[in-house]
């Protein structure tokens, strides 16, 4: 078993507790930076993979996040009215049972599901062969899988949404028939959202130089008091 294979017993470090709840670290109702089309993105809390150079180490711990019932999460995703759901982490397959329920509910409504994982495709296959039904169920409810750990020495400047060249796009059905052929022509997006309170959120992927260049042109001013 390689370092990035999912454990047959489940992720090491996950605290005992109700497995039917999803630990949600972040919910983004709509984005065009986390998969094909406009999608709702859910980052889950907890990751046993722990890639060196990970951009989200705050999501490694299985403590924290908001424990959310799958049915509630499905309602939130469908209310967002986007084309589909993208699951990111954290590590979705470390909460595979609950997320399979979420994915099933989203797909029953005709929306698509894209799942990112730091586990390799082979590691997931071996887990399924070893009897991990939760892993099998989440795979069965995923249309587009992006598999493999982030490798800081293999940064990918050409494909959208992924961090490194070893990460593999896997079409698990015919929901995105043209995706692989058009992948290298699909631009990576960096999405900057400023909400009415002035909070800035950045989604998507960019190399640090590009991010520095972008932020160099941003003038930060103190907020003006509201008129009243
Ligand atoms: S799988 Fe994702 S969240 Fe987990 S360590 Fe790797 S890059 Fe970070």
TrEMBL record:
Query: Which cofactor is essential here?
Result: [4Fe-4S] cluster
User: What GO MF terms are annotated?
Assistant: 4 iron, 4 sulfur cluster binding; [formate-C-acetyltransferase]-activating enzyme activity; metal ion binding; ribonucleoside-diphosphate reductase activity, thioredoxin disulfide as acceptor
**InterPro entries in the record, alphabetically?**
Aldolase_TIM (IPR013785), NrdG (IPR012837), Organic_radical-activating (IPR034457), rSAM (IPR007197), rSAM_sf (IPR058240)
Which keywords label this protein?
4Fe-4S, Iron, Iron-sulfur, Metal-binding, S-adenosyl-L-methionine
Q: Which SUPFAM superfamilies match?
A: Radical SAM enzymes
- Pfam families annotated for this entry? Fer4_12 (PF13353)
Q: What is this protein called?
A: Anaerobic ribonucleoside-triphosphate reductase activating protein
Tell me which species this is from: Micromonospora auratinigra
List the top taxonomic levels of the source. Bacteria, Bacillati, Actinomycetota, Actinomycetes, Micromonosporales
